[in-house]
Amino acid sequence: MSVSSEFADLESSTFERFNSATGDFYADRERVARTQTLNIVSIIKRSEQFTHLIDMIASDDVYLLDFDDTPLKVIPTVEDFEYDCRQTAPQSFSISLTLADKESRIMEDISDGEEYSKPRVFSPQYSETFD
Question: CA-CA distance, 73 to 96, in Å (whole number)?
Answer without folding.
Answer: 13
